[in-house]
Amino acid sequence: MASLSQLFSQGSRLANRRYSTNDAEAVSRVSQDLLRRIPLEIYVLIFEFCAASDAQALYNFFFDDTTKAPWSLSHVCSQWRAIALNTPTLWSVVRISMDALETSSQSMDSAAKMLTTYLERSNISPLSIFVISEENIQQSIIQPLIYSCTRWRDVLLFINPTFLSRLAPIRGRLPQLRSLNIITTEFDEAGNTHKIFEEAPSLEQLTLRGAALDLGLALPWSQINVFEANYVEPADVLNIVPTMPRIRSLRLGREPPEHAPVDTDDWEIQHENVESMQLDIVDGHAQGHPGDLLDHLILPAMVDLSITCDVEESIGSVRELLRRSACTICSLTLDIRLEHSARLIEMFRDVSQFVRLSRLTLVDGDLVADTPFLDALAVRQCEPEAAILPELQNITVTMRVDGPGRTVQRWLDTLESRVNPVQPADPETPRIKSIQRIEFRCITGDTVLDNPVIVDRFRRLVLLAGVKVEFHYGPGAVD
């Protein structure tokens, strides 16, 4: 009998092609007896796999495209059609692009009817809704979505601010809304307050990108656990953080300023529940200093911190944030421009908040090959207590430098010393953990994968030491 993976593969191939009268030959390659004996539950798994594959890409719009699952699954044979039409979860992801609809050969009325049919087949399943339109959205497309709003669970709207007023009927009718992501590139010139999402008892994850933070949205801030936003000036964030007592994760990106900054010199915001914070730059912009925001925060519960900024002095703001918060960091990601690693080494040695750091990600050009830093990280036989970060077990290194083979060799020298490392003689000194996972990312695999010495060292780490080693290369590997 064929394995489950073979069935998935066969199902995917059959479901993702156009069928005609000649396709009986393709179907006949699969044993008809086998197909009859496949349990219904396996068919549903295969179909859900196909639909999930089509829904994977954020900008893959398929409710009106019969070449994609779930439409294609219902066009193979009567048995498959019956299964597809009676599996509501297959029809629970709706992606709409007005640009795609307006440039297609299909009329808008036909597309609206297909959308209505699609939503009807989802039955009572919770819905994931993705609407992308920077201009106008036809009422015939909006109306079926509004009718289904009580089932909205995860929603992404890439829209013009004027669209919000047309969603007024959904206010107070969002019992299942769990995550909301609003993106807009336009400011609401009218300065309206939009209350459509004000009553959403299940909303816990909120993302406001582009200019969405300035849309004047009334939201149930006290419920939010995860908040992601682009902000123009620190006051945009500092005003909101105190209204979210349940917030656990902050993911923030800085946009170029559009107006005069608000004076926040005397502001100090302490939040007892934030466990994770990510501070990024947006589209390469690094307007101002990250300290504009970091210098006003106290986050005693923070265990996961990720900072991206090309302002060298930002390491000082990171250090002071950790000291002021008296938190204990377990995971740290630094994509910070540094001329040398001395300040980074000093921070790791002097700040007690790193005593339990087990996961480290570094992205900073030449820094990742800086000899003083690698020496400080290495566990030396004669002086193991001198090594920084005794709890480190998981490390990711992104290299944007030439000659990655040489850099990888130097890192391997350091990391091999942390596999079953020598321990300090003083029992009061923290024990040094053995490295468990190593990940390298670089622009090219040249002088790495074709280097037998490096490959052999990788192999010994995996086979003899049990370390999980990953190596990714190519332009996308460092983005």
Question: How would you summarize this macromolecular structure in one to three sentences?
Answer:
This protein is α/β, with parallel strands linked by helices and 479 residues long. It folds into four domains: 1-91; 92-224, Alpha-Beta Horseshoe (Leucine-rich repeat, LRR (right-handed beta-alpha superhelix)), CATH 3.80.10; 234-258 and 267-357; 367-479, no CATH class.
Plain-language structure description:
- The chain is of the alpha/beta class and 479 residues long.
- The chain folds into 4 domains: 1-91; 92-224, Alpha-Beta Horseshoe (Leucine-rich repeat, LRR (right-handed beta-alpha superhelix)); 234-258 and 267-357; 367-479, no CATH class.
- 29% of the residues lie in helices and 19% in strands.
- The protein contains 15 helices and 16 strands.
- The protein has helices spanning 4-15, 24-28, 32-37, 40-54, 78-85, 98-103, 108-121, 139-147, 234-238, 291-294, 314-325, 342-350, 371-377, 404-416, 452-463, and strands at residues 93-97, 127-133, 152-159, 179-184, 205-210, 226-231, 249-254, 269-270, 276-281, 297-298, 304-309, 331-336, 359-363, 394-399, 437-442, 468-473.
- Strands 1-2-3-4-5-6-7-9-11-12-13-14-15-16 form a 14-stranded parallel beta sheet. A two-stranded parallel ribbon has the order 8-10.
- Strand 2 (127-133), helix 8 and strand 3 (152-159) form a beta-alpha-beta unit.
- Helix 1 crosses helix 4 (40-54) and helix 7 packs parallel to helix 8 (139-147).
- The protein is globular and about 75 Å long.
- The chain starts with a helix and ends in a 6-residue tail after the last strand.
